[in-house]
Each structure stands twice: as structure tokens, then as C-alpha cells.
Amino acid sequence: QAVVDFERLGEHAAAFQGHDVGFCCLGTTRAKAGADGFVRVDRDYVAQAAELARAGGCKHFVLQSSRGANPQSRFLYLRVKGEVENLVEAVGFDHCTILRPAVLLCKRQESRPMEWIAQQFLGAVARLFPAAYSVPVETVAKAMVACALQPGEGKVKVLENRAVHELGKA
């Protein structure tokens, strides 16, 4: 495990060398970082980490993105997620897997009241429609590992929420 300063990520290139697979779940919230900070973390840091990983020999990059990611979206969150998907794809990995989970169901240390309310509601909905609107973070993690173990055909693979559920349960 290496601790890096994301503001000086280029100085930590050695931490990105010698790995066959890279996993990226990096992200913040607009509320926590502001709009500019959100873009810097969710797009710029991720893209730079992908470039360093590729330069260090990484062959397969597995990126956690978001349902609805679209570089043309009017919504900042979805637009940034779409932009970073395009940037990561452009790096030129042998394999690039992008997971687009819906709302992540997890326990957080910090207080996010609106997210907590949404999780309570979506957790109840998930009992009836497990893959419709949410996904447990453990399922996403298992799906990411499965992607690394069996990258499949093609250079870029995008897995929507239902596919994340299926792969994470397999």
C-alpha cells in the first residue's frame, strides 16, 4: 500500500509501476469538495492515475463510474463521470472495464442525511427489485474482482447496474 499526494500525483509514479490490473473507486461529493473540487477528484485525479498506471505497465483498468454517466449531461455529476470514462478509455489499456452501478448501499462514517434517507428507501425497494435502483458496495467490489480475473473479449467493456449485480453474485 502506498500513500500518495493527489495534488502531486506525478511525483508518485513509482507507486503505479509493476501492476497488471488497476482498480479505481476514487470519488468525492460536490457538497464536500465544491464543484471545482469534485471535478478535480472525480475526473482529473482518476484520469491522471490511469495514465500513470498505463505508463507503469498496467494492462487492465477497472473503473467504478455511475449509472447514467454521460459527457453530454446537463448534470455535473453525470457529465464528469462520462468525461472520465472517455479519458480512461483513451489511455489505451489492453482491457478497460467500466462499472456503472446505481446508488451504492453502504454504511458511511460521515453524515449524509439525504443519502441516508435515499438508502433506506432504496434498500426497501431492493428487497423487491434487487437490481433496479441500487447495489451494495460489496457486490460492486466482487464484480470488480471478477472482471480482473476474467477480462473477457474486447478492449472496453461497460457493465450497467444489472450486470454488476449478476457478476457480483456469481
From TrEMBL:
GO molecular function: catalytic activity
Domain NAD(P)-binding residues, every copy: 4-151
Listed GO CC annotations: cytoplasm
CDD domains for this protein: CC3_like_SDR_a
Highest taxon listed in the record's lineage: Eukaryota
Pfam families: NAD_binding_10
Subunit structure: Monomer. Forms homodimers during oxidative stress. Interacts (via N-terminus) with elongation factor EEF1A1 (via middle-region); the interaction is direct and competes with EEF1A1 binding to guanyl-nucleotide exchange factor EEF1B2, thereby inhibiting GDP for GTP exchange and reactivation of EEF1A1. Interacts with nuclear transport receptors XPO4, IPO5/RANBP5, IPO7, IPO9 and KPNB1 as well as GCN1L1/GCN1 and LRPPRC probably through their HEAT repeats. Binds NCOA5/CIA.
Protein name from the UniProt record: Protein HTATIP2
Biological source species: Vidua macroura
Source species taxonomy: Eukaryota, Metazoa, Chordata, Craniata, Vertebrata
